[in-house]
Amino acid sequence: MAKDLGDQSLLSNKFGTISNKEVIFLSKKGLFGSKTVEEIPIHQIAAVRFYKQKSFVVAILGALGILTAFVIATLFSGSLILKIIGLVVLALGIWIAYIGIGGIPTVLITTGEGKTTQSNGWPNDRNEAKAFALVLREQLK
Known about the structure:
The protein has helices spanning 56-75, 80-102, 126-140, and strands at 9-13, 16-19, 22-28, 35-41, 45-53, 104-111, 116-120. It is an alpha+beta fold. Keywords: Membrane, Transmembrane, Transmembrane helix.
């Protein structure tokens, strides 16, 4: 006779908490959007998917920011304030290009009713998103 082990937490990170009975999923509308907490029983989850949303347009915008910084530095090489502005634009361009090229890690959960909910993270949250999806996928088997 098998014992009921109760509710055991298997994983907890920025994307939520997985236990052997339910998932507490921190779904977000976007990177800067507010979080909503959804409690989903394991038996209602049909699928889980991890992927990285890469954006060619965002990478191009970042490259344009980097190019703009070099144009500012070249055309206005004598002004200290414009050099500082050029450095700020350069840093912003590099950051935006990193987001576009690195991709935004996303975890998507589909329930048996067909309802989907997702949570996005920053590019450095890729390992946590991947771990969340893998542990949840193992619980679904």
